[in-house]
């Protein structure tokens, strides 16, 4: 009775056994015992809700939907067991009180089957004749352990299709003999070369020796070490062959456009500017592109006419020039020169009268009665006098330490100078030319500053140390980003005219391209140079950048930057320019582009400047 009660529960709907589809268009589903309508429950579950309920509800597997009442019913354990027994086809009741039939058993249920007897006799005959072999029950210990390095024709190892045989020791040759022929003995040069090589690069792990008799041969000193290495070879040998993927090497090379489709870019050497007698460490081109300034270790600054390679003017500054930088403002004609601990502001007067007057007006823009400002008592501004004034020197900015680099802001009023020194925080100064003021923007510097640069558009300031580049917001006076160059020692840096990309060269032959919107790590690492990279430069108008190295070459690359942030920059090396002569293991020291033409200038340790067009 319990099973019957489980299978026929109390039904509240009294409409009887009629199709439920009849109530499909009605708001109710039937009537209860009182004759009142049983309304359909609001069921707003879709497939997604049903899936979430399946994942989160632990009782979901035993929940069924009752169509007559429209509700969800959770089955009990007894009901679930009853459903499982029905699915397995088992009888509902274990004990039958009344049998289904009283028919007596047949006679054939007591007599062996003749058909089965015939089948068994055939199997016995097949076993006797050897046609059928019964299954052999193997011992548990057999087949579980086997010799891994046995011969490959064994039945156990034959099952491993990818079995790899053990490596065998090569047979001894004439070198191992105690009395080898003379041609197998090392000479003094071969022995010295063998001792300089790494153990892994040597063809022989020992030096062949000659003895008159076998009794004089001593014990082998590396015997235990060689036995140990042999055991490692057997122990660490791979047990299985791995199929190597056959890849065409040409498919791994990215599809880059051809260099001839990326023209114009400099290809040939057109002019050589000769006149310096020492290393030409720095060069700079005027904003108009008509004049070229160069600073050398011979203590002179020369001004060249670009088209004719003629030296228009020479200024003796009395010390090795570390850096020169032309003011980028086309309305003035000024040059900043760094030597020793002084930064000179020169007015070469290589322009029309209006530009020269604007330059003089900028230098004399200090208000009357205002004393020259001194930056923290360590930077002193002074005006040139006497012979220096006649040569074009207008201002002198005295620094506490040796200055290695000067760089201008895009508007031409601010100037930054770098003094690399680990012992002091006074490594970077920013000078305002119109007010003759200097300030140290950093209370302390994290690392040895190598070079700095202004952002061409925004008020950002780039500071390159030995291993990283820090970007500072000059308005908010805070650091906004830190770029990891993944180089041992950064040597130079250049900012893209758009301001969103930076390249830096390093002394470990690397050139790193940074995408400031993408990551703080290099987007691309170029290792085309064989020696230290001394200088890098972007072109102001064309999608070109160049790098100069101590290997005597200048590599020009095409670098297209897209406005679409989802499209990566296109970087293609297009030309290797050579012409400088290696001097004292130094090659090309500086590189810069012409402001309007696809030309590149390079200065080298051979005291020359070369123009490639």
From TrEMBL:
GO terms for cellular component: nucleoplasm; PeBoW complex; preribosome, large subunit precursor
GO-annotated molecular function: ribonucleoprotein complex binding
Major place of residence: nucleus
Domain BOP1 N-terminal, chain residue ranges per copy: 23-266
Keyword ATP-binding belongs to the record: no
Annotated WD repeat ranges: 273-314, 581-613
InterPro entries: BOP1/Erb1, BOP1_N_dom, WD40/YVTN_repeat-like_dom_sf, WD40_repeat_CS, WD40_repeat_dom_sf, WD40_rpt
A Pfam match: WD40
Transmembrane segments: none
GO BP, one annotated term: maturation of LSU-rRNA from tricistronic rRNA transcript (SSU-rRNA, 5.8S rRNA, LSU-rRNA)
Localization annotation: Nucleus, Nucleolus; Nucleus, Nucleoplasm
Superkingdom, natural source: Eukaryota
Keyword set, alphabetical order: Nucleus, Repeat, Ribosome biogenesis, rRNA processing, WD repeat
Keyword rRNA processing tagged: yes
Family of this protein: Belongs to the WD repeat BOP1/ERB1 family.
Function text: Component of the PeBoW complex, which is required for maturation of 28S and 5.8S ribosomal RNAs and formation of the 60S ribosome.
Assembly and oligomerization: Component of the PeBoW complex, composed of BOP1, PES1 and WDR12. Within the PeBoW complex BOP1 interacts directly with PES1 and WDR12. The PeBoW complex also associates with the 66S pre-ribosome.
Name by which UniProt lists this protein: Ribosome biogenesis protein BOP1
Source organism of this protein record: Oreochromis niloticus
Lineage: Eukaryota, Metazoa, Chordata, Craniata, Vertebrata
């Amino acid at each position: 009775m319990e099973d019957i009660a489980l299978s026929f529960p109390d039904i509240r709907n009294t409409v009887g056994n009629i199709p439920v589809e009849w109530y499909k268009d009605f708001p109710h589903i039937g009537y209860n015992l009182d004759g009142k309508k049983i309304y359909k429950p609001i069921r707003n579950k879709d497939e997604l809700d049903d899936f979430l309920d399946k994942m989160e509800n632990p009782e979901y597997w035993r929940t069924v939907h009752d169509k007559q009442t429209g509700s969800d019913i959770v089955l009990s354990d007894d009901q679930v067991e009853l459903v499982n027994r029905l699915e397995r086809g088992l009888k509902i009741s274990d004990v039958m009180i009344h049998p289904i039939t009283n028919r007596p058993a047949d006679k054939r249920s007591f007599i062996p089957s003749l058909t089965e007897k015939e089948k068994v006799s055939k199997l016995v005959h097949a076993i006797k004749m050897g046609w059928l072999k019964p299954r052999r029950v193997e011992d548990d210990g057999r087949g579980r352990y086997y010799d891994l390095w046995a011969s490959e024709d064994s039945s156990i190892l034959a099952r491993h299709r990818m079995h790899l045989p053990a490596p065998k020791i090569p047979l001894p040759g004439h070198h191992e003999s105690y009395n080898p022929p003379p041609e197998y003995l090392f000479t003094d040069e071969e022995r010295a070369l063998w001792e300089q090589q790494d153990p892994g690069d040597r063809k022989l792990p020992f030096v062949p020796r000659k003895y008159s008799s076998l009794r004089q041969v001593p014990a082998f000193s590396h015997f235990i070490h060689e036995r140990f290495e042999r055991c490692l070879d057997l122990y660490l040998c791979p047990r299985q062959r791995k199929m190597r993927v056959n890849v065409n090497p040409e498919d791994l090379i990215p599809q880059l456009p051809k260099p001839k489709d990326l023209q114009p870019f400099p290809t040939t050497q057109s002019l050589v500017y000769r006149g310096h007698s020492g290393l030409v460490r720095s060069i700079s081109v005027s904003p108009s592109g008509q004049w070229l300034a160069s600073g050398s270790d011979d203590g002179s600054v020369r001004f060249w006419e670009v088209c004719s390679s003629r030296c228009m003017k020479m200024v003796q500054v009395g010390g090795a020039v570390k850096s020169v930088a032309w003011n980028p403002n086309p309305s003035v004609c000024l040059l900043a020169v760094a030597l020793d601990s002084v930064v000179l502001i020169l007015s070469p007067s290589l322009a029309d009268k209006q530009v020269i007057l604007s330059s003089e007006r900028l230098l004399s823009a200090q208000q009357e009665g205002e004393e020259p400002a001194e930056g923290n008592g360590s930077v002193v501004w002074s005006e040139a006098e006497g012979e220096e004034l006649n040569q074009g020197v207008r201002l002198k900015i005295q620094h506490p330490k040796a200055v290695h680099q000067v760089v201008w802001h895009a508007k031409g009023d601010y100037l930054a100078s770098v003094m690399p020194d680990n012992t002091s925080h006074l490594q970077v100064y920013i000078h305002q030319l119109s007010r003759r003021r200097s300030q140290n923007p950093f209370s302390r510097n994290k690392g040895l500053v190598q070079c700095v640069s202004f952002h061409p558009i925004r008020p950002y300031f780039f500071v390159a140390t030995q291993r990283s580049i820090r970007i500072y917001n000059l308005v908010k006076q805070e650091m906004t980003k830190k770029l990891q160059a993944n180089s041992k020692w950064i040597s130079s840096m250049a900012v893209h005219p758009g301001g969103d990309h930076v390249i830096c060269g390093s002394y470990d032959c690397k050139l790193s391209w940074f995408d400031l919107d993408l990551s703080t790590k290099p987007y691309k690492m170029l290792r085309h140079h064989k020696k230290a990279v001394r200088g890098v430069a972007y072109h102001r108008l064309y999608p070109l950048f160049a790098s100069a190295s101590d290997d005597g070459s200048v590599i020009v690359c095409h670098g297209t930057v897209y406005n679409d942030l989802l499209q990566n920059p296109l970087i293609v090396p297009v030309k290797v320019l050579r012409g400088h002569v290696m001097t004292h293991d130094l090659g090309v020291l500086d590189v810069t582009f012409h402001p309007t033409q696809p030309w590149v200038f390079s200065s080298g340790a051979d005291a020359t400047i070369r123009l490639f067009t």
